[in-house]
Specification:
Heterohexamer; disulfide linked. Contains 2 sets of 3 non-identical chains (alpha, beta and gamma). The 2 heterotrimers are in head to head conformation with the N-termini in a small central domain. Helices cover 42% and strands 10% of the residues. It is of the alpha+beta class and 397 residues long. The structure holds calcium ion.
Length: 397
């Protein structure tokens, strides 16, 4: 095409000269004249014209092609824009979102894996510790077993029998009443006069919850200690039958068939008075009858044997010889400060403390109590004032 352009410039004068075809005859033969040049150039006119035509067509083609290309480019631009706007863009952004989501999932899973690894290693540590403890225990178990609690060697039918056999100090003893199927452990209080008391109940710090069900009261609960530092309810513990368990105090409590009825026919005077005999609160003429405990059956929240329309044991949170309901309530809720109010009493708002109403009013909860059993023979033998007074000497002022 470079040659073709050169041709265009050369042929412009030729075309002009070709308007004078006759001059070739006038101008000389040897030295090329203008006409000669023109004539010489004329011979190429046809080729040049053809070249020009060809060139023009080429140019036109190029122009057409350029136009088409422009259209194509425009179209492509449009397509690109619309594609970006439409499916492609959406697709790619969806893919992006998916990728992000996967990345997040991967990160979360990596975190989980990390946490699990930590858990595994902490578990491994703990297992190691447990193995060590287990090894220590195994070593200990290989040593001959020694009871760390001192249990006195003398045994008897009850604590008085034990005292009669020569025991002089309080502590843990085995007793086996004649009808009991097996011996069981009790705390015996033995005083300097050789009197033995079987401790039935001990309250001293509120460490044991006395809101227990029938079976628990039947089996006993809390903790026995050789130095009288713990709280418990021993009654019926490891004994199928209360009368078998306590033959020498058979008038105190009945058998389970009779719901462990309290038969408390005696009380020798003490500072605390006899709350078991009921109390006239001044609310109702029948107060004393309604609150005496003598002859009452034992009740727990799941065994209502009281003489009240409702459930005294449930309302007052204890197991006790409920009437409707009580003047004495030694299995009541422990209140650290002693004094308490209806608000403190919780859901039911009744006097649910450790109460001995002939000594303190019903809104004072005793801080220490002990219930002890003594043989009936000792009462009838006389001279038991001090012992029973101790029974009444509950708590503090
Ligand atoms: Ca009832």
């Amino acid at each position: 095409t470079f040659i073709s352009y050169a041709s265009i410039f050369l042929h412009i004068p030729i075309l002009y000269l070709s308007a004078h075809p006759y001059c070739q005859h006038i101008i000389g033969q040897y030295c090329p004249t203008t006409c000669g040049v023109a004539d010489y150039r004329w011979k190429y006119k046809e080729d040049v014209t053809r070249d020009l035509d060809h060139l023009q067509r080429e140019l036109e083609n190029i122009a057409n092609l350029t136009h088409g290309a422009e259209i194509k480019i425009d179209y492509m631009k449009d397509s690109a824009v619309s594609a970006q706007k439409n499916s492609f863009y959406k697709k790619s952004s969806n893919i992006l979102e998916d990728v992000l989501r996967f990345e997040k999932t991967i990160i979360a899973q990596e975190q989980q894996i990390y946490e699990l690894q930590n858990l595994i290693s902490s578990n491994e540590r703990r297992m190691l510790e447990l193995k060590q403890i287990s090894m220590q225990l195994q070593q200990k178990c290989q040593e001959p077993c020694q009871d760390e609690v001192e249990i006195k060697p003398i045994a008897g039918t009850d604590c008085q029998d034990i005292a009669n056999k020569g025991a002089t100090s309080s502590g843990l003893y085995y007793v086996k009443p004649p009808k009991a199927p097996e011996q069981f452990l009790v705390y015996c209080e033995i005083d300097n006069f050789g009197r033995g008391f079987t401790v039935l109940q001990r309250r001293r710090d509120g460490s044991v919850d006395f809101n227990k069900n029938w079976i628990q009261y039947k089996e006993g609960f809390g903790y026995l200690s050789p130095d009288d530092t713990t709280e418990f309810w021993l009654y019926k513990k490891r004994a199928k039958d209360a009368s078998a368990r306590l033959p020498s105090t058979q008038t105190l409590v009945g058998s389970e068939d009779d719901q462990y009825r309290l038969t408390y026919g005696y009380y020798l005077s003490g500072d605390a008075g006899d709350a078991f005999d009921g109390y006239d609160f001044g609310d109702d003429p029948s107060d004393k009858v309604y609150t005496m405990h003598n002859g009452m059956q034992f009740s727990t929240f799941d065994r209502d044997n009281d003489r009240y329309d409702g459930n005294c044991a449930q309302q007052d949170g204890s197991g006790w010889w409920m009437n409707r309901c009580h003047a004495a309530h030694l299995n009541g809720k422990y209140y650290q400060g002693g004094r308490y109010t209806e608000k403190d009493a919780g859901e039911y708002g009744f006097d649910n403390g450790i109460i001995w109403v002939t000594w303190h009013n019903r809104w004072y909860s005793l801080k220490e109590t002990t219930m002890k059993i003594i043989p009936l023979s000792r009462i009838t033998a006389g001279g038991q004032q001090a012992g029973v007074k101790q029974f009444g000497g509950l708590g503090d002022a």
